[in-house]
User: Fold these one by one.
Assistant:
Number 1:
Amino acid sequence: MKLILCFFLLVISFFTNAQSPIDTLTYLKESPNVYAILLAKNDKVIFEKYYNHHTENDLFNDQSLTKSVVSLLVGIAIDKGYIKSVDEPVSDFFPEIKSDTDKRKQAITIRQVMNQASGFYHEEGMFAYLQLPDPSGYVIKAPLTAEPGKAFRYSNAATHLLSVILTKSTGIDTRAFATKFLFGPMGITDFDWKKLNDGYYDGAGLLSIRLRAGDMLKIGLLVLHNGRYGSKQLVPEKWISQILEPQIVYHTELGLPGSMYGLCWYHANYHGTKVIYGQGWGGQHVFVIPTLNAVAVLNENTADETAIMQENNFFSQVFPLLFKQLK
């Protein structure tokens, strides 16, 4: 009897010790808004859990993580010679800018668009912007809202121009370009991506790319490994270096405290550890932590009425536990 009891206690002890501290968080147990959490360290998935009836096969609305994916595509396009450089003027792809009465527009660069510092129009209402028959054309023609390069002003409308630039420069649409040079080689075959009314795939995240959480984890690991996926160099290492250490960044109040923004990715120092991450409305995240050789992915509900609360709860309650488990 004593032998059986000792064995029983040993089994309980094993499973108790194996339990992730993430599983003990009451917020995750009770919140109807958390959908998926995945953690990878040293190229192994150490935690993967889906909540509120979601599964590994679900496509999640990644919101502005779309921007971070498009950033990788821009790097590929530069490497292949379709785009001269990140400092190429946007006017090279929108010749109508050259006849605009505001000559400042002629000097706006792709980098400034990717840094949320172009000065281009910022949508005042998402619904109204999405109803425009030519949203990218509207942005190009609208009056500037700030001096280009001088101030961080988050603009989905301006970021969408990146998808237009990719399509115009490569001769194929953004989805096809992503499939050929990024998603296909990574085995990402099941995803959804919608076009805006101008006929270009959403480059900002208002209609959003939708990926499986596991596939977003692949993208995080790709960045962690300097653009390599297995034996394939899919994104040029030089471009990943710029994403990890951008030449120009802007302070943002979004995300982790003290975050900076550059080339469609966020940068923060979290308790002395550098964290590079993409984020989308409501709590869509992919974190890359090079010194820990780790990646974390989170998907949550995107409803406007709970989005800000979810972000606050994530950064105050969930992220500290994720970080602790990855250390």
Number 2:
Amino acid sequence: MKKLRFIICLCLLALACEDVITLDLPTEDPRLVIDASIDWFKGTDGSNQDIKLTLTAPYFNSEIPPATGAQVWVTDVSNNTFQFQEEGATGIYRNTTFNPVLEETYTLSIVYNGETYMGEETLKSVASIEYVEQNNNGGFTGNETELKAFYTDPVDEENYNFFEFISDIPAIPSLEVYKDEFTNGNQIFGFYTEEDLATGDIVTIRNYGISEQFYNFMFVLLQQNSEEGGGPFETQPATVRGNCINQTNPDHYPLGYFRASQVDAFIYTVE
């Protein structure tokens, strides 16, 4: 009987101590978020391009608001202008007549909410993925599936690469950046490991040619994700700003980046 009373008291105490905690998080005016990637996939003419504009929102918001009604265009060094038209009120702006040229420098211009944003980038070439090696006994535990996507780095060039591995596990793609400082002219690989990959799973591997400035941007950004020891509630070791500048009000800087890349894609089926 005493034991029963003790259990009842514990339950009542637990119920009495259950409080809803409301976090008073700091807020600021929304900033423009620029997801502008000119991707020229090998085997295509590169004419179809998308640019996505959104706004920052409080941390616990479940939806990301689109930045609608902007004017968006990209200009090359010959002053050819490619207008991007918004699809509905989605914040996604499209162009179907883009003309990609390797080593061409492009300027992105955005007019949104009375402010003008500009960014500049050079379209970089990329080496093709030649083959993929699979190791079923990888990782620290020896139970992970490892994939190595091999490519040959061009000799006598300074190259930077951005790898994206996309599978259903996990839902968020795995991203890595590489530079050829110690591997110039050699065969090297992009690396991916995942414990839950199974035979028959499809992994899309993309290799992007990128500029040095985008490499530096992504290197800092990736160091702050959870897998590298960072997290949303930790103090950021550095402010990560992209290459787009608010020409009207520099203090109201945007987030995101304007990138231009040749891309090689490889579809791999896990064995």
